[in-house]
Design a protein that fits this description.
The complex is a heterodimer of chains A (about 110) and B (about 120). Chain A has no helices and eleven strands. With about 110 residues, chain A is mainly beta. In chain A, the strands form two sheets. In chain A, strands 2, 4, 5, 9, 10 and 11 form a six-stranded mixed sheet that branches. Chain A has a five-stranded antiparallel sheet with strand order 1-3-8-7-6, with no helix packed on it. In chain A, strand 4 and strand 5 form a beta hairpin. The N and C termini of chain A lie far apart (about 35 Å). Chain B is an all-beta fold. In chain B, the strands form two sheets. In chain B, strands 2, 4, 5, 6, 9, 10 and 11 form a seven-stranded mixed sheet that branches. A four-stranded antiparallel sheet of chain B has the order 1-3-8-7, with no helix packed on it. Classes of the chains: A mainly beta (about 110), B mainly beta (about 120).
Chain lengths: ~110, ~120
């Protein structure tokens, strides 16, 4: 089983739609969780951290379910500029932890 | 406050040559990660370093690849005797002293092409 699993997509949605991405992780001791965004041939950029209580930033909402080892990202009112690959990222535990990336979910928002 | 700086941005090497990729972390960051991304694939962890220490190199190929993060100067990822399969984007990320919710910030990457 992969450490971090995501549906690769692509998700093709019209402008204004709501879209949700899911991610599962295998290490139950993982401590912190993030969503990154990567545009074509660019570096990944932090979109938002994911907290147990859930968190919202404008049109973006992230949720964490520790019991199910599941993370989600909801994008409301999709814009053309939201087209990108969304990466689920998990940070491990202990001094030797590292960020582990899912392979990403591609989103294409169309007119 | 400059972000993570990687150089060169693009590097072309012939098979058998050496490639040296440099990464200067953000100011105040003492942790550096190297990732490799093959075309149309996800980011693969290679190595995690702190100043003068390799913490986790579980993603590093056993041969030809090495990494360092000296007390002074940038982190270096070195690939000896490059082969065509080494062609990829190599991203460096840095993070501050370890704390609970530490995210990492990425440089723009070095695109290595082996011809």
């Amino acid at each position: 089983r992969k450490e971090v699993e995501q549906d690769p997509g692509p998700f093709n949605v019209p402008e204004g739609a709501t879209v949700a991405f899911n991610c599962t992780y295998s290490n139950s001791a993982s401590q912190s969780f993030f969503w990154y965004r990567q545009d074509c041939r660019k570096e990944p950029k932090l979109l938002m951290s994911v907290y147990s209580s859930g968190n919202e930033d404008g049109r973006f909402t992230a949720q964490l379910n520790r019991a199910s080892q599941y993370i989600s990202l909801l994008i409301r009112d999709s814009k053309l500029s939201d087209s990108a690959t969304y990466l689920c990222v998990v940070n491990g535990t202990g001094t030797a932890s590292k960020l582990t990336f899912g392979t990403g979910t591609r989103l294409q928002v169309t007119l | 406050n400059a972000g993570v700086m990687q150089n060169p941005r693009h590097l072309v090497r012939r098979r058998g040559q050496e490639a040296r990729l440099r990464c200067s972390p953000m100011k105040g960051h003492s942790h550096v990660y190297w990732y490799r991304q093959l075309p149309e694939e996800g980011l693969k962890f290679m190595v995690y370093l702190q100043k003068e220490n390799i913490i986790d190199e579980s993603g590093m190929p056993k041969e030809r690849f090495s990494a360092e993060f000296p007390k002074e100067g940038p982190s270096i990822l070195r690939i000896q005797q490059v082969v065509r399969g080494d062609s990829a984007a190599y991203f460096c990320a840095s993070s501050p002293q370890k704390k609970r919710y530490t995210e990492a910030f990425f440089g723009q990457g070095t695109r290595l092409t082996v011809v």
